[in-house]
Amino acid sequence: MRTAPIALMALAVLVAFATGASAADDGFVGAETCLGCHAQQQAFKTAPHAKSMAAAKGVAFEKSCETCHGAGAKHAAAGGDKNDPGFASIVNPAKAKGDEACKSCHAGDKARMFWSGSAHEGQGCASCHSVHKGGKKLLAKESQLETCASCHGDVKSSLLKRSKHPLRDSSRHGGQGKMACTDCHNPHGSQAEKLMAGKSVNDTCYSCHNEKKSPMLWEHGPVKEDCLTCHTPHGSSNDKLLVMRPPRLCQSCHMQGRHQSGTLGANSVYAVGKACLNCHPMVHGSNHPSGPVLQR
Amino acid sequence: MTNTKNFKAVLAALMALLLPGSQAAFALEGAVDLGGRKLVLTGSADKFNEYRDLRDGLFVDELELGVGGEAYYAELTALNGGRKDESYKLEGGRYGKFKAAASFDRMPHRFATGRFVLNGAGSDVLGISSAIQNALQATEETRGVRGGSPNNDPTNKDLGQQNIIRDLISNTSPTSFGLERRKSALAFEYSLSERAKTWVKASEERRKGFRQMGMGSYERFAQNGTAVGTDGGHRSDTFLVEGQQVAEPIDYRINSVNVGAGYYDKRWSGDLEYTFTEFVDELKSLTWHNPFRAVDLSATTTGDADALDSAGVPGSAHGRFRGATGRMALPPTSRSHDVAASGSVELPLNGRATAALGFGTVSQDTELLPYTTNTDITAAIGAPAGVTTTAALPTQRFNGKARTLTQSLLVTLKPADGLATRAKYRSYTYDNQSPTIRFPGYAAYSESHWRTRRNDSAAQGSGITNELVSYNRQTAELGADYDLLDSLTAGVEAFWDKWAYKNNRVDNTSELGAGGSLKYRLGHGLHAHGKYRYSRRAVQGYKLGATAVNPEAVGLENFNWSDRKRHSLQAGLSLEPTDGLNIGLDGRYVDDTLGAQRFGLKGQETLGVDLEVAASPSEAFEVSLSLGKEVRRSEVANAAKDNGFNNTATSIDDTWANNAFNPLNYWNTELVDKTDTVALEAAYRPADAWEFTTGYSFSYGRVSQITTNPNAAAGVAAGYVSGVKLDNAAPGSLPSVTSRLHELRLGGAYKLTKDVSFGLDYAFAKYMLNDFANVGEYVAGSNVNENSTRFVLNGADKYDYTAHIVGARVAMRF
After folding, report:
1. Which of the pair, A7 or B357, is modelled with greater confidence?
2. Where are the domains of chain B?
3. A135 in contact with chain B, both atoms CB, cutoff 8 A
4. Chain A within 8 Å of B745 (Cβ-Cβ)?
5. With bands split at pLDDT 50, 70 and 90, how would you rate the model's confidence at A97?
6. The complex's ipTM?
7. If we measure between CA atoms, which residue out of B664, B665, B806, B805 comes closest to residue B729?
8. Is the CB of A255 less than 8 angstroms away from the CB of B432?
9. Where are the domains of chain A?
């Protein structure tokens, strides 16, 4: 059985020499030669990556493998013999440090402007992308949620909590809900904190919750400062993605009046229903002249 | 198969006609996932389908069509066709040259179903029959008749009112609170060259529906506790709560356009873009009818010792929630403009510098509503003339405007093999340039009274001015990673985070921190990493309590502006001990110690651990197990307030200026938020044609809130009589809240051909929520200290559900 792959490789080398002497002179053998042994990568032929390489970058399919993996003549000539020094001459970008192979084409675009020095730079592109596969964005997993959750287990757990954004839908393959992680984060780097896609946490939130963006006649100080003061976006055991449930959340900062400063038992209207928001619903700001205490 | 061939041929021909230079053969490919399902659901459909529309019947969950040749391509993706969570996207273009896309997405957001006693949910006027208003008004119990307790009902009018409300609720049909979002978008991207591109994107989003919103008020009844200490009478305050939940209409339209151009080369790149966003609220205000009043009436300041507040200002008005109607302002229409430029350039030493500059404005120019609709708020109770018209306002419009300025710079250098360094600076300014307006007062207590102060604090004087907080946040970070060995990388970092405020109760906060990390890679897939950070946030210029800037209590510090020490630790381990077995363990711990002051959130501790084991014992079988645990513990320190209850003769008393808190009235709450999750996935493929999958997940959340009085023993020892503390400082804990979610999935699929498979699925889901706050529509008569006869909720709080879903599907690729 061991002779079969070696024979195939030898055949591949022969084919390479027969079909592309000039390429072989440069150490390049061509994609067909590669596929002679790596038949499992046949799908790459029809994957978006291969198509766009040819049309957008002028890299013909025949040269596509070695564009990323480097010249393959010595590797092919080793005929599968791992002891042959030439065998290891091939580059595997997925195992190499850094991301130079990918950056040779994806040197820059808007989404990757802040890649250098970003939190994910050290992970390498192949941690999240499988370049030989088809599929959207060449993701390594079936969905974006699965791809991100493979490292961010805490977020995966949060998505099962009582309140959450629609990131997860168990009825779908890959579990992807209506939202995606990239609706809020740019995994390729960002000028903002937490790889936020917007200019800041709040600006990211406003991209959907636009009604909260405008300055209001009566403001609630922390609101325009940081939504995360009161909300935790990946999931919460409290309603409305709150970091703590009212009335205690509100009482963490408010004890001016008598009704704010009581322990407020379970039989109190200050604690049931929407608690403090039963009477102060406009916690995100009010535009009503009678709204200074956010009741209108 | 013949039909498929014909279809492909037609599409290919169509592409050949539509796309220039497309004589080359076009390949058609695609996939479709369709079938039928039966859903058996008991309980809350709103929670089960919170953001989706899973339903009975035939479905086309996914349809993908792609056609293209060497240069051109077109793709159509359709998800959940025909459902309320459907989405479609059509994209096409020429590789490397241009790309055009059109998309439509629809998503529900269901809140809950309840009983809403007013008519017109979703519109800007909520009404009720005048017969009901008259009947309830006729049963209004006055404060004079009640005497000192809100629960006194000598004429049985409360009972009559309760019967009317209960009858009304029982005869009201269920109302589903929710909204729907529809978003349409167009995008076009054109490459001027291999490195230069331009783009334009436009979208329109509609959101329509309604959600619950509280419109309540309360009235305090001070008890006669004058015999205790120096209590001025508030030791055992009780309350009458009044109001209702209404349906806030949502009728938003959001238009957005983004245009930009950029040049992207490996050595340098830069781009410039402009974004315009218009938020339009089709409704300006919401007016609702007060079920309890047919005729406007204002509150009074007579008949009780509390008629005047502690500063002698009429404030504790009695007989609230007395306008026949009420009105609130809905979110204003606004426009925003953003210009952003970013650029990046290669540096020596394998370095790179990247910078971004962004400027934005957001503004509204809105005609203000009058102070109130209550015609009984007149000069007789101190209000200006004509408070029901905009003529009484100091200004008729609010021209709110804020500017943002973003600047960031990131420099990375890799001066030696294995050494990577980075320096990052960022500045974000939010400058609120809205006008400052001094209002003489406002219609307070559910538009029942004219009040000239925002709160009880006399420091702010008469009249109320809007507070326009602006801030600048600067962050800086320095870091380096160095490969000590091929298998070991060490990292160090330092960071700084400063907030500077204008018109706020705090001037600045400044945080400095440092940390280190290790990454270890060994054979057998062993990877370990750990990261520790320590930071200290200091506060400058916190204006502590009872001042014009900060009316809150002395000794209270907001947690987002308070001193903070933070320890943060992350660690993880992944291991592949044998082929086909992966083990991952991750943990995180954050410990915050907050606040030099005595009240507010004092500390928070979060511990999370996740374990994942994935095994593939054979090519036919794979299984994975995930376990997660998170515990977050928070400590809130508080005290029940009573201006007159403070025995200054006792050493245990606080000596802080303006202190209004007796130590015996201190109370602390410990909140513990625990979440446990379990997920099990398995797949078995006994032969090429067969696949069986299963998955189970369980999440259990529990929030406990324990309240204690920390000074009880010391207070008694210092001379206080046990049990004389304020009733609202009694250490009554709030009940725990739990939620459980089980989800089970079983599936089997058989490949009829290489590209066609048939499958059967079964899914079970069960959600259980136990939350004391979900009390139903009407809680009158069930409270000890509060009379809630005049408080009506919607009862839209039922979230439990059990669902069984059986489905058959065909998945086909072509």
Report:
1. B357
2. 368-395+435-468
3. no
4. yes
5. low
6. 0.92
7. B665
8. no
9. 3-89, 100-183, 211-278
